[in-house]
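Design job #97: recover the sequence.
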């Protein structure tokens, strides 16, 4: 896999891939082959996959790009990139078990292949490996305080992920979920780890606490914007929905357009939506009708306006960080990639 981001060397991606392989290699138990499978490094038989088949490493890319944009070297942030990628995949494994997703990134999900018990076990192992990865920061010449800060940021983001997932599950059977409640949930579930990646990366460049926290704000708003973009794509995208998107819709998981419609549409539309969403699962054939209702009551426009506002907020945080032109262009290019990548 090669980088598509102007200003971030291709060596950054190859270094990250090599570090991810190292994190799961050299251990005898097949448990680590399950982790490598989740990371897109191996197939289900333990055969190594070509690098070009690896999924996008959006969180890791953001950590390394933030370090470079802040005036440091991307190499100093590789352990941070490894950590956030491992946490992202730990979370994906657990979400697939919770939601019953049989596919992830076009392949059978871990639980579907090895069973839910081993999937949970592999996910928890990746969580531990993520924390261990940060201790290699000492090998980059950084102080113990730098590793401690990175570990704190990672643990706080992981806790926020769990909080967001709790709310996502809680809202699944609730009809009355306000748009601002949804955005609070999605910021934790989808924004926290991007915020952590950017904040950690900038910290590796020895920025002041205030400037590094602006990177965190940039990443958090960007991650939330990505989720809103995925919400829009799920209902009105031109391509075929992937299995994860389809699964969330059928399971009646909330989205920004839906929460807006359930609180802002006329009584007739709200009643029709309510009749559909009180069913145990949403009929796949009904999704098109739901999309038409959401579009008709202005919920698509609301979501698109919210997306534009969140991207503007992310850019404002980036501007406030007062980077040089090259650093600003690098992170803006990555922001476009994160906001539009499906995987």
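Job complete. Output follows.
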């Amino acid at each position: 896999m090669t980088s598509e981001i102007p200003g971030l060397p291709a060596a950054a991606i190859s270094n990250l891939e090599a570090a991810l392989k190292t994190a799961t290699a050299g251990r005898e138990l097949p448990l680590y082959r399950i982790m490598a499978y989740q990371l897109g490094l191996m197939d289900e038989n333990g055969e190594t996959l070509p690098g070009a088949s690896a999924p996008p490493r959006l969180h890791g890319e953001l950590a390394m790009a933030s370090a470079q944009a802040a005036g440091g070297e991307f190499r100093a942030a590789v352990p941070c990139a490894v950590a956030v990628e491992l946490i992202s995949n730990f979370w994906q494994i657990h979400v697939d078990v919770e939601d019953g997703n049989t596919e992830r990134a076009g392949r059978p999900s871990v639980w579907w292949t090895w069973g839910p018990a081993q999937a949970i076990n592999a996910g928890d192992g990746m969580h531990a490996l993520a924390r261990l990865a940060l201790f290699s920061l000492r090998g980059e010449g950084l102080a113990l305080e730098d590793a401690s800060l990175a570990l704190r940021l990672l643990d706080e983001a992981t806790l926020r992920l769990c909080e967001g997932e709790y709310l996502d599950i809680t809202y699944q059977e609730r009809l009355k979920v306000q748009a601002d409640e949804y955005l609070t949930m999605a910021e934790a579930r989808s924004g926290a780890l991007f915020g952590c990646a950017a904040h950690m990366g900038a910290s590796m460049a020895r920025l002041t606490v205030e400037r590094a926290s602006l990177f965190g704000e940039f990443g958090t708003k960007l991650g939330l914007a990505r989720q809103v973009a995925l919400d829009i794509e799920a209902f009105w995208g031109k391509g075929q929905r992937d299995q994860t998107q389809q699964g969330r819709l059928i399971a009646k998981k909330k989205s920004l357009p839906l929460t807006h419609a359930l609180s802002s549409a006329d009584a007739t539309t709200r009643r029709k939506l309510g009749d559909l969403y009180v069913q145990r699962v949403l009929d796949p054939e009904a999704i098109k009708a739901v999309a038409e209702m959401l579009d008709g009551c202005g919920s698509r426009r609301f979501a698109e306006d919210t997306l534009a506002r969140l991207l503007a907020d992310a850019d404002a945080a980036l501007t406030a960080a007062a980077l040089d032109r090259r650093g600003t262009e690098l992170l803006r290019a990555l922001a476009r990639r994160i906001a539009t990548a499906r995987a």
